[in-house]
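Model the whole thing, not chain by chain.
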Amino acid sequence: MAKKQEEAVFTPIGLNKSNNGKLDKAVELPDPTDTSYKDLGLTKQDLVGMFESMYLQRRFEERAMQMYQKGKFGGFLHLYIGQEAISTGSVWAFNDDDDIITAYRDHGWGLVRGVTPEAGMAELYGKTDGCSKGKGGSMHFANVKEHFWGGYGIVGGHIPLGAGIAFANKYKESGRLAACYIGDGAVHQGVLHETMNMCQLWKLPCIFVVENNGYAMGTSARRHSVGEIVDRADAYGMKKAVINGMDVFTVYEKMKKIAEEVRKDSLPWFVEIRTYRYRGHSMSDPQKYRSKEELEEYQKIDPVERMKTFILENKITSKKKIGEIEEAIENRVLEAIEFAENADAPEPEALFEDMFVEENPIFHK
Amino acid sequence: MAVLQFREAIRDAIDEEMALDENVFVMGEEVAEYNGAYKATEGLLDKYGFKRMIDTPISELGFAGIGVGAAMNGLRPVIEFMTFNFAVLAADQIINHASKVRYMLGGQVQVPVVFRGPNGSAGQLGATHSVAYDSMYAHFPGLKVIQPSEPDDAKGLLKSAIRDNNPVIFMESEQMYGLKGEVSEEEDYLIPIGKAKVKREGDDVTIVTHGKMYHVSKKAAAELEKDGVEVELIDLRTIKPLDLDTIIESVKKTNRCVVVDEAHPFGGVAAEVGYLIQREAFDYLDAPVARVTLPDVNAPFAKNLFDIWLPDAKDVIDAVNTVTYRK
């Protein structure tokens, strides 16, 4: 009797696979740093500032989510919740004029690089006072004056833009580096590989950072990637690191060291920061691809709570002070919502503005 | 006037702009040590060095994007594609990024990048090396699209393109690089983007064309002259923004028009110009606007098939005969 043939399988099977009750995490976190904040060169004030920044990103998005669910604004809304230690630790590690560019999960990056809660919320609402004048929306926060080059909507599309910004920095000897943040899904776009090759060959002062939050939309990293993401660097002889992205001290420590090296020798890095996104890919995501247990595992090591606990346990500041900060941020975010709701929508003429640099461009009719 | 080859006019334009502005640099495959696949950048490495003449790997998407990023951050890249047939690989960067970044960030950046290289067919090179992409890029808001036909236009327009603060697509032709023509020796010779040129005046019929098809049309016009038909020949030079005024003024005079376009028929320059003429000059037309284009078929290799595929002067003459009811 002929042996029954097994059905062919291509993509590795996800949650339906039997794992004998074991939690099958999408990413494995490396250990956080055990260097003290003082040895990292951080002051108590820095720690409180980092907490403030992370808490603002968190509350801004939680409130934005509520407003979105109430139907206050349309478009996409990709939340950064759970990943705030990466934006915060990185920005603290970099110089203020180092260039940052990211993908569409960009609210946190905007807030930590000078987009005010008002300008951010107004952008979500599509108002003229938005950071991109209401022309971009959730995916295109930007504050170019403060070297945040914006969020981009095509997966991997901003990778060569980041390298191009680094190219210009080297060309002009500006001393600035460019940090290009991408998601784990973008690793499989061909443009990453074209760009990494040129960056290494041309010695561009550029850091590629994969914020591996475990899922490319609904496909876990284990299901979309051969081997470890960080090892892509090996093919290009590029320096690499894997970092715990749930701990802001770790992100700060490693990114500062990497930034110093890049500035010194003008060679690129490929960094995988492992993290977790608590919310769905976007607001329409039923999240059937992951287990509740996995989500809970990560919420136990929430970066914002972790920082707060550290501050209180080490008496960096008082519980009362933390309470005041939280209240002030909560109020600021609520004010931002009020601001956005009352702000003006763009005038109809704005439809034709910002297409070209000249004042009276010709539009084909 | 100096007599220059098309490629020399291109090179001189880049050379002059590089001399004027140290932020101008050239990047592409074979542009530096090889002196350009079609020698359009010959001698520039010797003059400007490796910092400003950058050979790339065969990574159109990657280096196009690096060009866009560099432009956002204050440089003025001139990105060479060995042909626009290869630029299809870079379409995400040209179409999704170069043309949109400024708008979607509410005007926070400008993208003064030039993408240049040959466009369209160049003999029997098969289906993937023979496509004219000017109409495709002209479709997208935020891009300017130029395709000159003669060395003088090439020099003046490329200088303007490099100086433009917006992304510009600048298209040439492999088969025109050796073409000689008189080029203005005026210092800092600039031709404004968006202006067509009437290159032959005539009262009987207007031919609207650009790029390599200008030369086909010019040949047809010379034949027709022998037959007593005076063609008004308009070289668009810039596809977008399109100089509609020059076209309409001419059609109102001749009342007949043929559009000659080295593209496939669906949705190309010929289709667009035909629509615009009926909108703006319907009452002036004595015949429907005719067009001469490629067929809706890929480029064949076989010589006899290729010759049928590519429009020639006879096709143009036939179209003129149709709109003048001479056949």
